[in-house]
Amino acid sequence: MRKLIAGAAALALAGGAYAMSSVSDEPDTTGWETRETVTIEHPEWSRDAVLYQINTRHFTEEGTFKAAQEELPRLRELGVDILWLMPIHPIGEENRKGTLGSPYSVLDYYGVNPEFGTEEEFRAFVDAAHVQGFKVILDLVANHTAWDHPLRSEHPDWYEKTWDGDFRPTPWWDWSDIIDLDWSKPGVREHVGGAMEYWVREFDIDGYRADVAGYVPLDFWETARARLDAIKPVFMLGEVQQTAFHHKAFDATYAWDWHKTTKNVAQGKGNATSFYGYYAENESLWPRSAMRMTYIENHDSNAWEGTMEENYGDALQAMTALSFTGEGLPLIHNGMEACNAKRLEFFERDPIDWQQDESCKYGDLLARLIAFRKANPALENGQWGAVMHKVESSAPEQLFAWVRQEDGNKVVGLFNMSDRPLVANFSDDLPVGDYKDFADGSAVTIESGDSVELPAWGYRLLSSTAQ
User: Fold this and answer.
1) Does pTM top 0.85 for this prediction?
2) Could you report the per-residue pLDDT of 254-282, keeping only the tens digit for each?
3) How far is the first Cα of the chain from the last one, in angstroms, to the nearest whole number?
4) CB count, 10 Å around CB of 317?
5) Mind listing the pLDDT tens digit for each residue in 69-108?
6) At 346, is the secondary structure helix, strand, or coil?
7) DSSP, res 420
8) What phi, psi does 162 have (nearest 5°)?
9) Contact (Cβ atoms closer than 8 angstroms) between residue 329 and residue 294
10) Residue 24 neighbours by CB under 8 Å, 6+ apart
11) 1.25.40.10, 1.10.3720.10, 2.60.40.640, 2.60.40.1180: which CATH number matches 389-465?
């Protein structure tokens, strides 16, 4: 009530100040009007899309496009929509790491790694994916190339140099198998940008995931996006966490802060209030249309940080449920649905063991969360979905509670972000209503002054649709 009164008082004061001036003296414009921001148009098919990352080397026993194609019906049943393939290009041999090298050490932007198959087999994969309703995006490594990329000898001036004039990897990181391109050179932009157009035009792919996108000038991505959209509507995911990249370049970027926060809370280094900073920025700092990729695991986290169980322990299911229902674009890394319990080798063949845990129910949870997400328009991506509104309670450090509602669809999320059971009273009427429970479809009614009881790391998702 206080807020409403304060708002009314402020409005009255503003009205009084306006009344004291002459309307006829007011200019038509003040110079403080809202400027119209030109932004990209997200493809309609990304509205409620879920990403699935494929490391072709690990995805099947054979490690090929042809074998991956056989898995498409299973992915269709899981419910994912956009298939992100890690780099498919030939890999450099000079300064190679491991036996097979990193897919991010690209030898030819226009070629296909024979380890995975032929161009024809890749084309068959894309075509089959389209027939089954998927979109396919490729991993693009624009920041650097392999040491033995032909451009190094053909255009040595296209590369950045060390203080003594030698080629150099990206500074400070241990990326000794690559050397950095110099993005001040027009030839670099034409070569890499031309490759992006090539795969869209000739193989009908649907966009890109841009590796270390923030290390490449923003204006290149904006130019590339406009040129690609002129061919067909594309989807762009950037490995960067900056708002500017959303206006004219990328549909989605990484939510590193979300990932770090979930891990910290799961490991007892935070509590429910630890999420406030992330979601406050997400609503107040980032463009309304921005899709921010919320992920439990990707190739980097699995290889260098640990497995899902190592990072999340008993909090895994709750954090997964939050990634699919809170604001954000969810990602599934290949193997998650089989409860992959190992750190996959990055520079070697290390096929995922799809039978490693017969009791694994995590894949079932992922499928159910995807279905729940698609059944509730309030949970859609970007500007299509609803913002999260905080529910106040008597246990703010344990209970992370929110509501997302739009056009008669209302979803309530209740998460115990602790290793202790909780009982908490709702302090406002935001969650009041009649719902179905995600867990079992049972009817649930929340009335004013009600409480919620959750076990350690427990959660409840409730949804309703106006009749």
Assistant:
1) yes
2) 999 999 999 999 999 999 999 999 999 99
3) 30
4) 16
5) 999 999 999 999 999 999 999 999 999 999 999 999 999 9
6) coil
7) S
8) -75, 180
9) yes
10) none
11) 2.60.40.1180
